[in-house]
Design brief:
By secondary structure, this protein is of the alpha/beta class. It is 34% helix and 28% strand. It has ten helices and ten strands. The two termini are 30 Å apart.
């Protein structure tokens, strides 16, 4: 499952869970500024995820997921929201993938999502976790319209803004105001950190949904140091039909310097 790991990582076999050994990878600095970071299976998802099927298919949450899928499929015929269109694929690769990060979101957190697109992971998380309050940042007006329709129809606790993250981070309403900032399929980690961390309060969390993340974490070590954060945990799991996935959790340890994000596309063209 784990394949090849970055240098300075060591394998250890952890205690058995549900009759199966769980192997973790402990990474030395620069990832954690002096502390080991556990790369492990996201057991909540991988080993049965108690209640996952019930959340997705049964009761009030099942009805909301079904309605969300229908709205997504209809809107996707008008403009591009996702390349994944089949019901089963959407439930596995979008809905279940989004829910895999749920254990890392603190109870009652105020969350900002950067680059919301079709609403992943935010909409599945709000369906399953009504305690979470979201602000969704999406620069494309059509996608903002879709997100507003979804949130209104499903009665989800979210505000939607047609803003780029780098612009929101210059606005006092958003800068360092959130308990959590999350993103999925937006940019490489060093760029994504510069978009997201300025929005997180000191002591809050940056949660990134990734595929294989080791290389990106190495690239982003300098960015985390500059922006005032350290990687706390990396949870890995296998997603049916999509291979290995990683949820990266970084803790904001200090205010982000006022110079960041730099804007004018430099987050992508000249990443930290």
């Amino acid at each position: 499952m784990h394949g090849t790991f970055p240098q300075r990582c060591t394998k250890r076999t952890a205690r058995r869970k549900h009759g199966r050994a769980v192997r973790k990878i402990f990474c030395k600095p620069p990832f954690a500024a002096g502390k080991a970071v556990a790369f492990g299976a996201a057991v909540w998802y991988n080993e049965g995820m108690d209640g996952k099927d019930a959340l997705l298919y049964e009761g009030a949450t099942g009805e909301k997921f079904a309605a969300f899928y229908e709205m997504l499929a209809e809107a996707n015929q008008k403009f591009n929201l996702t390349a994944i269109t089949g019901r089963e694929d959407c439930y596995a690769k979008h809905f279940a993938d989004s829910l895999a990060g749920s254990p890392f979101f603190p109870q009652g957190a105020r969350v900002c999502e950067v680059g919301s697109g079709g609403g992943f992971p935010s909409v599945p998380l709000m369906i399953a976790r009504p305690d979470l309050r979201f602000v969704l940042l999406e620069p494309t007006q059509k996608k903002c319209g879709f997100l507003r329709e979804v949130c209104a129809a499903l009665r989800l606790p979210a505000e939607v803004y047609a803003l780029r993250a780098e612009d929101a981070a210059r606005d006092a309403r958003f800068r360092e105001r959130f308990d959590v900032c999350c993103a999925r399929a937006v940019a490489r980690m060093n760029t994504l950190a510069e978009y997201c961390l300025p929005l997180v309060r000191t002591g809050g969390l940056f949660i990134a949904y990734k595929g294989r993340a080791e290389e990106e974490l190495q690239e982003a070590a300098h960015a985390f140091a500059v922006l005032g954060a350290r990687v706390r945990e990396c949870a890995r799991f296998n997603l049916e039909g999509a291979g290995e996935r990683t949820v990266v959790v970084a803790e904001k340890t200090a205010p982000t310097p006022a110079a960041y994000p730099r804007g004018r596309g430099r987050e992508r063209s000249r990443p930290l």
